[in-house]
Design a protein that fits this description.
The structure holds two protein chains of two kinds.
Chain A (H helix, E strand, L loop, with lengths): L1 H25 L3 E5 L5 E4 L1 H7 L3 H4 L11 H14 L1 E10 L5 E12 L5 E10 L1 H55 L3 E6 L4 E4 L1 H7 L3 H4 L4 H4 L6 H10 L4 E7 L3 E12 L2 E11 L1 H37 L7 H32 L7 E4 H11 L1 H6 L3 E5 L6 E4 L1 H17 L6 E8 L3 E8 L20 H6 L7 H11 L3 E7 L3 E9 L1
Parallel strand pairs in A: 12-14
Antiparallel strand pairs in A: 1-2, 1-5, 3-4, 4-5, 6-7, 6-10, 8-9, 9-10, 11-13, 14-15, 15-17, 16-17
Chain B lengths: L2 H8 L4 E3 H29 L14 E3 H15 L3 H14 L1 H6 L6 H6 L1 H8 L4 E8 L4 E7 L5 H19 L4 E7 L8 E7 L1
Antiparallel strand pairs in B: 1-2, 3-4, 4-6, 5-6
Helix pairs in contact in B: 2-3, 2-4, 4-8
Classes of the chains: A alpha+beta, B alpha+beta.
Chain lengths: 511, 197
């Protein structure tokens, strides 16, 4: 009976051994049984597969021999003995093929029936994929961190740049303000809505206002301040383009006001009014005019006396003169006439500049005025054998004008054409009448005006280089006076010229 | 192998656990593969003592004579030396079911040494193991085997086996075993000195 029981128990034990072996071989987790001194006593199939060692190679070896960090294994073993278990410790297993495999290690203490420590079971989980994932994640985190750091650096750099740009702008602004403040011209800046946004100290002085009283005020509000009247006028009339206008503030202050549009990206964003003090220039100009006027008047009287005396001499009122005396007297008479003419021109210019060149406009026949001027040169035209033509409108042309001044203008143009055209040349005059204006044209085949000097033709004292070589006479004032006469009548004057081939002057007068 | 030799082996008394036969098979398979195991089985059959290793049950008792015959046959077939048998003995505890069962007794080297005879009794029903001396300071232990005179090949097998058990509990790479006395040389018992560093 006892033998039967023993036999059954033995069979059960053997079945149990087979069961444990099958179960252990089935386990996907690599498991080792380790004795108290750290020597492997048993392993399952998964442990063999993981380590690439056969069971017989593993059993009998220290557990630490399987790992790269033996000290760490020993620490874990101590911890198992003290605490009973460890979980999820990471170790590097060195397989038979020397491949290093990251492992997550968990172990649990084994005890006998008396509670003695008899070793431990250890489970090994291959965490290669997890590590790869972690490393990938770490790489991504590092990359992202780097990107963020780079972004941060860029941002800081941008902020630095912005700060620097702001400081530069601030500095520029300060410089500009300093320039504006210390500028000798008065400056007023209006924004695009017409509000005064800046007025510099010089402008305050000129206009005798305080910045705080006028700043931020609209142009309409400023209109009520008398001193701003002329400023508002410039702003309204000229704000769309740069323009200049003379502004008088009593007799002691004359300003030249310029309105300049402030444009950014082709869009007008405001208006700058510049007030330049021209009081001194005007004063000098006036003194100069006064001097010329006085001198001319003083010269004209004795010259007139000389002119009449010479006339009487030539007429024989003072007795018979020799042929040679007569020749010299005639020469003196011509020179006197020229001097009188020059003085006349100087006086005209003085009047023009002083605004005293008063015109008495009455309706006159333009053709008659022209013919009157031509008659003065009839003899000379014949002498020089010009091919002369005068084309005129059938029904005449009446213009409201100062006939004497227009005659002077035609005279100046005719004088130039005759003077600078060689004998036998062509001289063509043409008067045409339109609905609103008459146009007069005088065309010669003379020396022409050098192209590089054509801009200066209407300037005071201008004389072309080419005529200066052959004609020393002439004041260079005729065309200046002519232009002023035509423009004072509301007309326009211009010319076309080619050096060596002739010149054509045109002017128009409103009917 | 002569008939006299075979008869002499088969006259050896005593039994051993089937687990010992299983460790023999594991080692033969390790060194010579399944073909080697088959060759040994055929030789045993030829000698009139057939044995199928797969059919051996670890806890059953089998004649010690067959275990010794297997070792002698192995030497003959594979031309192995006593050193190979020593190695076989050394590998045996690694795959022994019995060792796994009793390993819990190997708490310390000294306990293991002192309880050596218990382990011996779980594997065999003959002879006695005497834990003669354990000197931890000098790092040696002396085992004496009484009534174990069977066959000289067994001395090599036991030497390897005892060394492995010592290796299990000492965890030293430098553990050696030396048979200092042998019944086959006229000594009254077999004596093994195990040394370690």
């Amino acid at each position: 009976m006892e033998d039967d029981k023993f036999k059954i128990a033995k069979e059960d034990l053997e079945d149990l051994e087979i069961y444990i072996k099958e179960f252990s071989d089935f386990l996907p987790l690599a498991v080792c049984s380790v004795n108290p001194v750290g020597v492997i006593i048993n392993v399952n199939k998964a442990a063999e597969d993981l380590t690439k060692y056969a069971s017989l190679e593993l059993v009998g070896e220290p557990m630490s021999a399987l790992f790269s960090d033996k000290n760490k294994v020993e620490e874990i073993e101590k911890e198992i003995a003290n605490k009973g278990s460890v979980h999820g410790r990471e170790l590097i297993l060195v397989a038979k093929d020397k491949k290093e495999i990251p492992m997550s290690v968990s172990a649990s203490m084994r005890k006998d029936t008396e509670g003695n420590y008899i070793g431990y079971f250890i489970g090994l989980t291959n965490i290669t994929e997890l590590k790869k994932f972690q490393e990938g994640l770490e790489v991504k985190v590092k990359e992202r961190t780097k990107e963020l750091e780079d972004s941060k650096k860029s941002l800081i750099k941008t902020l630095d740049d912005v700060k620097e740009a702001r400081e530069n702008a601030e500095e520029e602004k300060n410089k500009t303000l300093s320039i504006i403040t210390n500028f000798t011209d008065g400056l007023l800046v209006f924004d695009k809505g017409g509000k005064l946004s800046l007025i510099n100290p010089q402008a305050e002085t000129f206009l005798q206002v305080k910045s705080k009283d006028v700043i931020e005020k609209s142009i309409l509000d400023l209109k009520t301040i008398p001193v701003f009247g002329s400023i508002v006028k410039i702003f309204n009339e000229k704000a769309k383009r740069a323009a200049k206008q003379e502004l008088s503030f009593g007799t002691s202050l004359i300003l030249e006001g310029s309105a300049v549009p402030i444009v950014r990206r082709e869009k007008k964003i405001g208006t700058l009014i510049i007030l330049h003090n021209i009081t001194r220039e005007k004063s000098i100009e006036r003194m100069k005019s006064d001097f010329v006027s006085l001198t001319a008047h003083q010269l004209r009287t004795p010259l007139s006396g000389i002119k009449w005396a010479l006339k009487l001499l030539l007429k024989g009122d003072f007795g018979e003169t020799t042929k040679e005396q007569k020749k010299f007297a005639e020469e003196m008479s011509r020179s006197t006439e020229k001097m009188i003419s020059l003085i006349g021109n100087l006086l005209d210019i003085t009047k023009i500049e002083e605004g005293r060149y008063i015109f008495e406009k009455v309706s006159s026949d333009m053709e008659k005025v022209i013919l009157s001027a031509v008659s003065l040169y009839k003899k000379e035209i014949e002498n020089k054998k010009f091919k002369f033509k005068f084309k005129k409108p059938k029904n005449g042309a009446r213009v409201k004008m100062d006939a004497e001044k227009i005659k002077l203008a035609v005279d100046n143009l005719l004088d130039n054409a005759i003077k600078y055209t060689k004998p036998g040349g062509r001289l063509e005059l043409e008067l045409s009448c339109g609905i609103k204006e008459v146009e007069f044209k005088i065309k010669d085949s003379g020396m022409g005006i050098p192209k590089n000097q054509q801009e200066r033709v209407f300037n005071k004292f201008f004389r072309g280089d080419n005529i200066m070589k052959i004609q020393t006479e002439g004041t260079g004032l005729g065309l200046f006076i002519t232009k002023n006469i035509i423009e004072a009548h509301g007309g326009k004057i211009w010319f076309k010229s080619e050096e060596g081939r002739g010149t054509t002057f045109y002017f128009t007068l409103p009917i | 192998m002569t008939k006299e030799e075979l008869d002499k082996i088969m006259q050896i008394k005593g039994n051993v656990r089937g687990a010992i036969f299983q460790t023999h098979a594991v080692y033969i398979r390790l060194k010579k593969g399944d073909e080697g195991v088959k060759m040994v089985e055929e030789k045993l059959k030829e000698l009139g003592h057939p044995l199928k290793f797969e059919e051996v049950k670890p806890l059953d008792w089998y004649p010690e004579a067959i275990s010794i015959l297997i070792m002698v046959v192995i030497k003959e077939i594979f031309n192995w030396t006593d050193k190979d048998i020593f190695e076989m003995g050394n590998m045996a505890p690694k795959s022994s079911f019995i060792v796994r069962l009793v390993i819990k007794h190997f708490l310390t080297p000294q306990k293991c040494f002192e309880r050596g005879n218990d382990h011996w009794k779980k594997n065999t029903d003959w002879g006695e193991m005497e834990a003669y001396e354990f000197n931890e300071k000098e790092k040696y232990a002396i085992l004496r085997m009484h009534g174990c005179k069977s066959h000289p090949v067994v001395c090599f097998y036991h030497g390897g086996y005892f060394l492995r058990i010592a290796q299990f509990v000492l965890r030293s790479e430098k553990v050696t075993v030396e048979e200092t006395k042998c019944t086959h040389r006229g000594d009254p018992y077999d004596e093994y000195i195990i040394r370690w560093e």
